[in-house]
Amino acid sequence: MSDGHGGPDAAGPTPPPEVPPQDPRLPLAGLRVVELGHYIAAPFATRLLADLGAEVIKVEPPEGDPHRDWGARVNGRAVWFSIHGRNKLSVVLDLKSEEGREKVRALCARADALVENFRPGYLERIGLGPDVLRAENPRLVIARVSGYGQDGPYRDKPAFGAIGEAMGGLRHLTANPGRTDLPPPRCGVSISDDLAGMYAALSLVSACWGRDRKADGPEGGKGVTIDLDLVSSVFSLMEGMLPEFGLLGRVRQPMGAALPSAAPTNTYPCADGKWLAIAGNSDLIFRRLMERIGRPDLAGDPRMASNSGRCAHAAELDEAIAAWTRTMTAKEAQEAMEAVQVPCSRLYDMKDCAEDPHFQARDMMLEVEDPLVGATVPHPAAPFRFEGIPPRDMVRWPGPAVGQHNDYVFGTLLKEDAR
Questions:
Q1: How far apart are CA 355 and CA 11, in angstroms?
Q2: What is the pTM of this model?
Q3: Catalytic hit among 193, 229, 318, 370
Q4: 193 noted as active-site residue
Q5: What is the pLDDT of residues 100-140, one digit of tens each?
Q6: DSSP-assigned states of every residue in 39-64
Q7: Fewest CB atoms within 10 A around its CB: which of 156, 182, 307, 314?
Q8: Which domains does the chain show, CATH number per domain?
Q9: What pLDDT digit, counting tens, does each position of 187-196 carry?
């Protein structure tokens, strides 16, 4: 067993091993979750659970989660992990050793849930399958995240986030309309991993609630296994496209910045080279929009009286709006739209987000002291707000060092639970 000072966190200061007490105000305080995850999907799920107060025990190999080496670095540390590993306890175990597997079984025997994102069948091959883990803890909820799911003809194929986007239907929709010489772009983040992580967190909490609700029933509050995958997570977002195809044979095609089901809603060029997103697709908002850009004739045009009519003439509307936005900067156009209550926004980059007064007023960015990085690291606040709990109280500590909590988890927590 590692002493917690090897791998990517070997250099530089090591945070103290003390673990802050759980915050009883947080809704998942008292829920214990073991994470056998790496990279993004499972660790993202457990980050959400940890933000909500769960005690998350992140099991890492001796060299640490590979994600500790991703992204930009400060003082030799990848700063992304400060967020990715926050509020979690890190322990080091070698799953290739019997000692490591025995400790995983001991942790799961005392946990409410396990989240893992290994290839299907891996845990079974090393003796940590659901049957083995539930032999000691029938209440254990197990959330399994993979590329294609635990069954089906593709279950054994490798997959990363880009594959989930591609096969789930999203990347087809982000293509440039009419352009076959340019690859359809990514959205810029690992959206399929994040989606699978969110679904894993939601379904895990739901399963724990259902288990506990049935504790006195004939099933005795048994745990269940949850099967989540990247492809299904993306596919679930495809709105009405499946019935449109099944009933009408219609395959939705890339629309660029527009929507096929609402108009006018698009992203329009401005005089300063920036872009303004405008959503004027309700009847009242549409009329206000047309009046403001000096086109009352379109506001009163019978062809534009309903959303379906506007969709049929979306190109004409987009041309009129773009002719107006090109005459001013994105900021000026946004202010003009906001003055008449038309939903809009400039396309923000991270500098815009960090400097926006609304982000600041709502504490959407938190300054977190990170001893590993040796700096104060800006963290995005948890997206959920609970009455009486300031956003700052939901981030108790940044991503820990590899194995930082070995002594606490193995020397204190397990021994206390065994009493």
A1: 33
A2: 0.91
A3: 193
A4: yes
A5: 999 999 999 999 999 999 999 999 999 999 999 999 999 99
A6: SSHHHHHHHHHHHTT-EEEEEE-TT-
A7: 182
A8: 7-237+360-418 (3.40.50.10540), 265-269+275-346 (3.30.1540.10)
A9: 889 999 999 9
